[in-house]
Amino acid sequence: MRIGNASGFYGDRAGALREMLTGGPLDVLTGDYLAELTMLILGRDRLKDPATGYAKTFLRQLEDGLALAHERGVRIVANAGGLNPAALADAVRALAAGAGIPVRVAHVEGDDLMPYAQGALTANAYLGGAGITACLRAGADVVVTGRVTDAALVSGAAAWWFDWAPDAHDRLAGAVVAGHVLECGTQATGGNYSFFTRHDVRHPGFPLAEIAEDGSSVITKHPGTGGAVTPGTVTAQLLYETQGVRYLGPDVTARLDTVRLAEDGPDRVRVTGVLGEPPPPTLKVGVTRIGGWRNEVVFVLTGLDIEAKAALVRTQLADSLEAVACAQWTLSRTDHEDAATEETASALLRLVVRDPSPDRVGRALTSAAIELALASYPGFHVTAPPGPAQPYGVFASSTVPADTVPHTAVLPDGARVHLRPPPRPDAPREPAPEPRPPREGTADRAPAGAPEDTVRAPLGAVAGARSGDKGGDANVGVWVESAPAWAWLHRTLTVDAFRSLLPETRDLPVVRHELPHLRALNFTVTGILGDGVASGHRFDPQAKALGEWLRARHLDIPAHLVPAHPVPPHPAPTHPAPDPEVGT
């Protein structure tokens, strides 16, 4: 089956659905609209209007694409239902009826666990793909869901296409891995890629997977679209927002340490060898709540005496901040010595305040900062005028027994099918052996006792990385492209070395996971993001650039691993490229 993706988040490229439908043959087209922050946004929407709570952009895409999908026989599966999949299903039916398009619409519900704990804004269990499978088996042309796992959009559709049983663990695990590669859209085709200068990624095409009956797949994209599909781009996405070698899911546990990648032609990467184990008996539950109120002021410090200027501001505002629950100062030394422009001569001093009361972090506080304008450091100015306090969100996760969640498929004819968790085997399957460290022979390193020539260089000279968030935690996946580089990376980038290179992680729990088939290490950092992206805990609230910071850090690298000449940027085309479409 050929299954594509047309959305990696709520606000992704608006024209992607049409691009995927017109760019080449497909059997199923998926769209991923949900993330931890999105659930908070939809929760606030639902507070204002209980009839909302779903991703409205999906409907706008269907206005342009539903007739195309019907003409081409492409089924559409999307988690755009968010907190109200039934209302979105009704809206899709109304859209289809108004346009005279005879499509059958179904939806999946049961993930919404509200009312939940006191103060919860949303609480949703992460369902698997069984509800999607049931809807497609009943003849649905469009299936909308609430909070299913991102990969379930693909694995649920593949289980329908191939009629897999719930205990087909290896096949399901292969589809889950393909779904994980597709779920973030153009991140699999060169977007957000460490080695982006190797390819023209100004307007990358969205990815698709050719899935075989045995669960193996080929990751590719429509012909003539931008970007690239390589073992590197697929590896980067495989490492994104994963924790450990066992990728736990409601339908199956996929062993990421068994994944093997191989080039299968231009812009084609074959994914094989994935082993699956039974799913855990529990489901993850994501809970959001309003954590309080926040505000911020960014002071611009220009020229000389940057540290003294910052100290003066902090002293002058100390009394105003005494009653505030949390006040965080960050000085970013973006200034350059003897700079040719005023901007590059300036540093940024950022004050972020949080409190349960909007009054303590409202205009009174930001106005106190502005009142210093003529009585503080020379060159005083800020990046924005004083503003009111804004609510911020908090994300937390827990688990519930899978058999307590009413996973329900609502079929096109309105029939309701209640789905039970997959049966657990009486005796657990013997797990795949843990990966062994790489063998370090003469091809991988200097002979024993011989000094190794090294050069001081950034880690990114030999390694790629991708990072992301899971609630308040972050992961950083690091990979290399050759066996000698892998042997060096494996022995060098220990947890202690990781903490040394990224001092912000020094006092936090860090765990290293090994994925030898991918020549990759994956580090999980607990607590670095505080209460999650919506709390605005740090400068990079989703840890999207944590991996690139790691790549920019310098260490001693064997000289034979560092390329003599970096790969040049992809040459600019001789004809103007079309303007990329802007997501909403």
Question: How would you characterize this protein structure?
Answer:
The protein is of the alpha+beta class. The protein has three domains: 279 residues, no CATH class; 109 residues, Alpha-Beta Plaits (2-Layer Sandwich), CATH 3.30.70; 108 residues. The chain contains 13 helices and 26 strands. Strands 11-12-8-7-1-2-3-6-4-19-20 form an eleven-stranded mixed β-sheet, sandwiched between helices. Strands 5, 14, 15, 16, 17 and 18 form a six-stranded antiparallel β-sheet that branches. The C terminus is likely disordered.
Architecture blueprint of SSEs:
Layout: E1 2-5, H1 16-23, E2 28-31, H2 36-48, H3 56-72, E3 75-78, H4 85-99, E4 105-109, E5 120-125, H5 130-137, E6 142-145, H6 152-162, H7 169-182, E7 207-211, E8 217-221, H8 231-238, E9 246-247, E10 253-255, E11 260-263, E12 269-272, E13 275-277, E14 282-302, H9 306-321, E15 326-332, E16 346-355, H10 363-370, E17 381-382, E18 390-401, E19 408-410, E20 416-418, E21 454-458, E22 464-470, E23 473-479, H11 483-492, H12 495-501, E24 510-515, E25 520-525, H13 546-552, E26 554-558
Parallel strand pairs: 1-2, 2-3, 3-6, 4-6
Antiparallel strand pairs: 1-7, 4-19, 5-14, 7-8, 8-12, 9-10, 10-13, 11-12, 14-16, 14-17, 14-18, 15-16, 19-20, 21-26, 22-23, 23-25, 24-25
